Amino acid sequence: MAATLMFNALREATDEEMARDQTVFVLGEDVGHYGGSYKVTKDLYKKYGELRLLDTPIAENSFTGMAVGAAMTGLRPIVEGMNMGFLLLAFNQIANNAGMLRYTSGGNFKIPLVIRGPGGVGRQLGAEHSQRLEAYFHAVPGLKIVACSTAYNAKGLLKAAIRDDNPVLFFEHVLLYNLKDELPTHEYICPLDKAELVRPGQDVTLLTYSRMRHHCLQALKEIERDGYDPEIIDLISLKPIDMVAIAESVRKTHHVIIVEECMKTGGIGAELSALIHEQLFDELDAPVIRLSSQDIPTPYNGTLEYHTIVQPPQIAEAVRKLMSRQL
Amino acid sequence: MVSEGVKTDVTDWPQAERSLPPRPDPLVTITKEEGLVIYEDMVLGRFFEDKCAEMYYRGKMFGFVHLYNGQEAVSTGIVKALNPNKDFVSSTYRDHVHALSAGVPAREVMAELFGKETGCSKGRGGSMHMFSAAHRLLGGYAFVAEGIPVATGAAFQSKYRREAMGDPDADAVTVCFFGDGASNNGQFFECLNMAALWKLPIIYVVENNKWAIGMAHDRATSQPEIYKKASVFDMVGVEVDGMDVMAVHTLAQEAVARARAGEGPTLVEALTYRFRGHSLADPDELRAPDEKQAWFARDPIERFAAELTEQNLASHDELKAIDDKVAAVIEDAVEFAESSPDPDPSELYRYIFAED
């Protein structure tokens, strides 16, 4: 069995769900003829036609709003953000309409909608193309927010998101599209609301998501060499946060380091840290540590960019300091 | 205050009256029954809004309440050309009367304004967020122009079902109401482009009441004749006297037929006027008394009543009977709203997700 690259795993998920349900369609910039900016929808228009792989004009707010209207009237749209950062232009439709409309309407309408695409900091893409919108959208009620991190979970999570009756913001990472996994030949679904235990351990809980999962794994060798046994948990669901899984881990390790790619201020880790302090204070042997990106627009220069996001040696050092009580 | 003899640019702004477009020729012919339905719907809208003002000032409803008085011919003329079992309507913050025309019972609209559990949005929406899936009302959208993409998506859905899913009966038409203020917003232009590009079954209805709160339409746009903006998208654009329900109704029937036949969208600019301020919180100081009086004299309900009686489609007594019937409906709606329960605080979190 050949390994499947993440972008192809996402393509398989889309293809399978479109074959399964005629109401599923994809819309966005260059999703049809061009096959998507990262080839997640490559050639699907040949199979499903131009209406089901709808190439839209460059009008993010309007085509996102259109997707909301189509979802309200019974279709299951998948909006591809060519780059998730572009969806800042659709903030109103995502927040007021996708997120809040079901509540505001008193349950009159449901909005089965997936908004997916590449997020995160890439390689020297400049500030506007290096957004971490998961933090910006985190406060919006009614949205589910998911970040995939492997080819395996990308496929299973996207299928679950498409079948979900609620609006799901689905974050891929621009630097993870070429990760590969051996995928099962049978159909599988990954739950949208469950964290993934990446590595069990006893000493310290590393809570992470998306690309930072892999930075944690890169730091693992050094952490182990230092004599510590970390538990790595990939949040997967950024909203709601799987506090059951987190509590189980914290009750075991009593130490928490959050490793995230979003900025520190108002980030995912800020909310997560508050939740842990509120709910698990007595379990903690030390304050929760946040390793986040710097609070700056992502610089273009490669060296500056390197210093903007968390790197594996920082994770190992944070573990060392926390466990030796130097923090 | 401005000192005597000095005029500000704002109050001095010339509000040139546009010449009214001619009545469509021929007008659709209506039966007595249809005429009375149209009359009743307009009266329902007027009486309902008058009662809202009363209830607002009596402290029964809160927030921003935008009334529709004066514009009734637009809602009635358009919505009564739709198939209520098939077609969709989307609205703005000024949505009570669109909801009524679409068939949402006055009880449910009034109860929503009272914030009650029996309201059409379960008391969670309020004046600017009337929704009814049962009556295919896609909602009141409170931010200017944000409903235009949503309505366009509903229209896309019709085309999708027909062409991608092979359902020959999927010919629902969507009507999208908004005001002159929205016609300067990007979403308006973006959606006109897509609707024309894909020949979507949608009717964009601009209710040009000349004022976006205090911003005179002529001060906000380089081309005040909004209907002309359709032409650059190769779309049909028409203007109509929005105080003439039969003119509106006639154009609506044509536009609906065109949309239903797959021939694409229409932009309708209805020249109309709101008889009250922007909202009940608006002191309405900028609109000149002469301007208001000129439009009050063109009251669409009085005009249609006169036409019905002149054409012997209805007698004064029959119209009076309708007025009395509607007044009773409104009283019943208020009693229903007052006696309905508030939403239960234990359900504060209900309706956030589809499973709730």
Please tag this protein with its features:
heterodimer, A: 327 residues, alpha/beta, Rossmann fold, 2 domains, seven-stranded mixed β-sheet, five-stranded mixed β-sheet, 14 strands, globular, B: 356 residues, six-stranded parallel β-sheet, two-stranded antiparallel ribbon, 12 helices, 8 strands, 10% strand, disordered N terminus
Please specify the SSE layout and strand pairing.
The complex is a heterodimer of chains A (327) and B (356).
Chain A: E1 4-5, H1 6-20, E2 24-28, H2 44-48, E3 53-55, H3 60-72, E4 76-80, H4 91-99, H5 101-104, E5 114-119, H6 133-136, E6 144-147, H7 151-163, E7 168-173, E8 180-181, E9 196-199, E10 204-208, H8 211-225, E11 230-234, E12 237-239, H9 243-253, E13 256-263, H10 268-280, E14 289-293, H11 302-308, H12 312-323
Parallel strand pairs in A: 2-3, 2-4, 4-5, 5-7, 6-7, 10-11, 10-13, 13-14
Antiparallel strand pairs in A: 1-8, 6-12, 9-11
Helix pairs in contact in A: 1-7, 3-4, 8-12, 9-10
Chain B: H1 9-12, H2 32-57, H3 72-79, E1 88-91, H4 96-101, H5 106-113, E2 137-140, H6 147-163, E3 174-179, H7 186-197, E4 202-208, E5 211-212, E6 215-216, H8 217-220, E7 236-241, H9 245-260, E8 266-271, H10 289-296, H11 300-310, H12 316-339
Parallel strand pairs in B: 1-2, 1-3, 3-4, 4-8, 7-8
Antiparallel strand pairs in B: 5-6
Helix pairs in contact in B: 2-3, 2-11, 2-12, 3-9, 5-12, 6-7
